[in-house]
Amino acid sequence: GDVLYSINTSQKIKRYIMKNNVSLKILEKIRDNFFINGMVHKYEKNVNIYLNGDYEKSDSLQICRTIKAINKFSKNINFSLHLLSEKNADAGIFFNFKKVVLQDKPVVIGTDTYMGGETMFHRRYKNVVNLNYIANDESKKIKETKIIETIYQCIGPYEMDDLKGLYIEKNNEIIFGEEYKELLSFFYSDEFAEGYTDKEFGQLISQPLNTT
Fold first, then answer.
1. 3-state secondary structure 147-190
2. Which portions of the chain are predicted below pLDDT 70?
3. SS3 for 130?
4. Phi and psi of 203, rounded to 5°?
5. How many CA atoms lie within 13 A of 83 on its CB side?
6. Do 92 and 51 form a contact (C-beta atoms < 8 A)?
7. Residue 84: what pLDDT?
8. pLDDT of 23-54, one tens digit each?
9. What pLDDT is stored for residue 194 in this prediction?
């Protein structure tokens, strides 16, 4: 099944590019930021997010706003939030919040990504996010931004450091920028198969594709 699913991937992606008029800028960002160890690794459609440790109500609300926004524009990814960690849960995104007294920055965050499974092409199956923060107004604002950026990066751009223009907040709602919507929608399209390599993708986009 994995082999059949991934056959003729370049041709399928080319059709997607032409149909959706994907720009060269988007293609290059996919090539440079979305491959892990030279290969496509994606989450399954349904992704659970777990909260552990010293999280605050504002943290859970920010995560809810983020997943609501992503669920709206990407039909192939669906988040749900679990406020209490399940002991046997071994897949999903795990946020571990820790309130600290002293550290160099108001918020320090680290993320580990895990791949595995029984399929031919191992998917992403878990991210562990350790978020340490000092309890003050400055760290609260930084946390809000870091939560959104981290969830986005856990499911998509593994290497992307510059997330300028990722989102805006309007009427207490998170709205992702059109470019970032396009990046994630393309990456989680059916055409972008597990196991597809950055080498194959690089060869594809080096050819004339009538993109702008």
1. HHHHHHHHHCCCCCCCCCCCEEEECCEEEECHHHHHHHHHHCCC
2. 1-6, 83-88, 117-121, 209-212
3. strand
4. -65, -40
5. 9
6. no
7. 65
8. 999 999 999 999 998 999 999 899 999 999 99
9. 86
Q: Give residue for tokens 């994995």.
A: 2
- Fill in the amino acid letter for 70: I
Q: Name the pTM for this structure.
A: 0.91
**Which pair of structure tokens corresponds to residue 191?**
């055409």
DSSP string, 61-93: HHHHHHHHHHHHH-TT-EEEEESS--TT--SEE
User: How many Å apart are CA 156 and CA 153, to the nearest integer?
Assistant: 5
Cα distance between residue 40 and residue 193, in whole Å = 7
The pLDDT score that the predictor gives to residue 117 is 61
